[in-house]
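User: Hi! Is it possible to get a structure for several chains at once, not just one? Here's what I have:
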Amino acid sequence: MARKILFQQAINEALDQEMARDSNVIVMGEDVIGGTGADGEMDAWGGVLGVTKGLYGKYGERIMDTPISESAFVGAAVGAAACGLRPVCELMFIDFLGVCFDQIYNQAAKFRYMFGGKAKTPIVIRTMIGAGFRAAAQHSQCLYPVFTHIPGLKVVIPSSPYEAKGLLIQAIRDDDPVIFCEHKALYAMEGEVPEESYTIPFGEANVVREGSDVTIVALARMVGFAEKAAAALAKDGISCEIIDPRTTSPLDEDTILESVENTGRLVVVDEASPRCGMAADIAALVAQKAFGALEAPIELVTPPHTPVPFSGVLEDLYIPGPARIEAAVRRIAEYA
Amino acid sequence: MALSREDLLEAYRRMKTIREFEERVHVEFAKGGIPGFVHLYAGEEASAAGVCMNLTDDDKIASTHRGHGHCIGKGVDVHGMMAEIFGKRTGTCRGKGGSMHIADLDTGMLGANGIVGGGPPLVCGAALAAKLKRTGGVAVAFFGDGASNQGTTFEAMNLATVWRLPAIFVAENNGYAEATAAKFSVSCEDISTRAAGFGMPGVTVDGHDFFAVYEAMREAVDRARNGGGPSLIEAKLDRFFGHFEGDNQNYRAPDEVKRIRAEKDCLQRFRARVASDIAAAELDAIDADVRKLIDDAVAQAIAAPDPLPEDLTTDVYIRY
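Assistant: Yes, the chains can be modeled jointly so their relative placement is included. Here is the combined structure:
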């Protein structure tokens, strides 16, 4: 029986093992140490939720607190990556990427292409996504479709502790810029994680559950919700296959298309906003490339096209949950 | 380090190469051979040369949309540059970047930049890499009076001080952000005075004077290499052309450019300054050399092949 640790411990372990392996790996971000320049303890926070705790004691100057100055330190990470380091930048909440967007989508993403294939920008930006914490509209978004849209970036979205560690190690070793999205509701999730270092390749979806009637494609926290829905549906004899793409760029199209070829039915569950989101993108992919296999309309389960609300009553309505997934599956399972 | 005779000749050669390159791009652009947006550096050569004569290949620079001079100053091959500006496959960036994105990491040139204020944060990273890898290198951010008002520039100057980085910020104040005057858009008389707010030394120099730029830069580089942190240098200078090629420059005073060319030409000033040590004929010989070099670069660029259709989709990722 493999050891079980939390999602956030899996991330810490990936960082720790990669920093130990390669002295070019550095970590920077707001309060990733916590306490720099203050009169109290160092490593006071180890990241706003404690994910980087302990790294300062081991790696000293290779982990750096930054001013609240995202354009400067994300840009610095990009520049450092172009000069031979492998920076892992923590950008607390994906909502904050707006203030340093230029450094990501005009600089990091484009260096290789604009410079005729001569640049290498191995940067990882770790950032939290997702609603469910009553954190309101500016601390709860799932903006990964925005980054998936941009050529030159890779976008990674783990859904379990095992995925978190293997994908983060892959991200750090990857020579392209990576946006690594961590759903904050998963930080306390426990799961089996090997102690040794391992990687999960990008662009390879995980078939979370095999089934024959309906394909459910889900990301991040929605994977667990899809599993709940599938368990309930199984009792009624509806067999769901659940696919977690794990990376939205690159996207494993083949696994999704093969599954729909078998089931003839597709539900896509995405916590991102519906317009130009991953649900719409995957639906378009299947409509274009597996149209002949479809036996029912494609169902998209997403939040409404609104900002994330504060009130718990409203936020619970906003987040797609197992009940909505179950209902969507039943609609197309019964479609004649 | 005093400038040797060889250094002076090299400085002149770099400035003359920039001038000749830009004057020629102006002509070729008007003929219709050069696509896209081109921003010329002619008139500002003393800044690029004065800064870069203090640097080695291990040092890094980040440039701006007006980047040809910085490239040449840092030693990027002019044949590759010219071909790139013509959009050819033999260009520095294989025709995928163009004038605004020439980069050559081998010579420490981290790229011209189409985003005003895009460079200063990148330079913090280049300086951080030098610091952590203990190379003794420095990193230089060139930016204009326009970028001097960008938040990225302020943030980068703060970060460079906070992390005590071997970074040098070079504000090239040519008096115009596109068509808007710096005396309107910059809130202070001298951009260099902003350095104080970030806890770093700042100095304004005459950007038409190679020696003034060189000396200020030498001091800043020494400080940076010795762990003394970042500096800001403002070079006040003038551009001979418009913001971009095709700019009718009707926002400038009548005869402004004519007067600048007559009175503030950094090459003429350089020649006058070294007249007692270097014979005019020696500099004339460099002029002839440079003209030949640029003629050849243009001829080769025109004759060079376009990118191939399959180049469209390469170099987006290293592996995907």
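Residues 19 and 59 of chain A are 8 Å apart (CA to CA). Chain A has a mean pLDDT of 97.

User: Great, thank you!
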